[in-house]
Amino acid sequence: MTIIFTHLDADGVCSAALIKMIKKYSNAQVFFTHPAGLGHDIKGVEDDLIICDIALDKRSYNKTYSRLEKISQNYSIHYFDHHSMPGPLPPAVINIHNEKVSATEIVYRYFYHELPDYADHIALLGAICDYLDNTPLMQEMLHHYERRSLFLDAGLLAQGLMKSNSGSRYDTLRNVVKRLSKGEFPCDIKFLAEGALKVSRREKQIRKKIITLYAKRENLAYIINPPFGSRSKIAYWILGHSGLYLGLSIRHLKSKPNLVDITIRGRNLVDLKTIIPPIIQKFDGSAGGHSNALGCRLLKDKLDQFLEILDNKLSSLPINPPHAIKDLIPLEN
Ligand SMILES: [Mn+2]
Known about the structure:
The chain is α/β, with parallel strands linked by helices. It folds into 2 domains: 2-195, inorganic pyrophosphatase (n-terminal core), CATH 3.90.1640; 215-316, Diaminopimelate Epimerase, Chain A, domain 1 (Roll). The protein contains 13 helices and 11 strands. The strands form 2 sheets. A 6-stranded mixed sheet has the order 6-7-8-9-11-10. Helix 1 runs parallel beside helix 4. It is globular, with a radius of gyration of 20 Å. Bound molecules: manganese (II) ion. Manganese (II) ion (MN) binds at residues 11, 53, 82, 102-103, 130.
């Protein structure tokens, strides 16, 4: 038996579904985790292990490393990921790493020769939902389907997963993984489709409210403790609505009242991975993610300084500002 630990977003779900399409792994057990929880969650694993789409977290790196090392003495470990790595993995771990593509694409390419034909559809869904369909392979594979039906399925999956938030969430997610691995599409899975419609209808209302609540600095839009809604979507909405470089959705943590979590989204104009971590490290915070989508944690009383430094940094960079909508409207150009 093999155990799969994956992320509970669409990229993680599609990665696990691809793996379960392979005969050898069809009975693998699927568990869901996150960067800070990985080291804890793999404690006591006594099976072959596959990890997908989970960033190696800097703070728990040593613990995770030693647990992986211990497991790897007796079992195989595959680690598929596309987040930046704070350090190496134990030598016996098979590390399949590429920061330019989705975790789903990494898994798809690694197991390509063992996958059924319909795996391409699931590979595309994981990539689209992680904003990483703009790779040479995914762009070519997009031609296997028709854009509108493909994107509908991607939307049903991403939005439907947000709704499966109730009691037996992990069982629901396992069920989605299993059904996708058997060749069903999100449009075949009734509760995903119904959940997606509810989530989308709710978001329509939430966005209207959010775009009245955010604040701006010269180069970035931010919102502190938005009353509802998904952090990443809120960051996007205020990024777009403000016309600025970045959108930041900031939350005070209930469990750790001296800290804030910040979700940052950009327009691919700056590489967040080179800008944010050096600033965060000055304040002894932590940051992780991708060049255009990043999360960080910081002491609450350092937040203003962080925003100030980040804003100045953006001013100093030689980047073209985003186009203003009104400049793009005239037809004569
Ligand atoms: Mn991912």
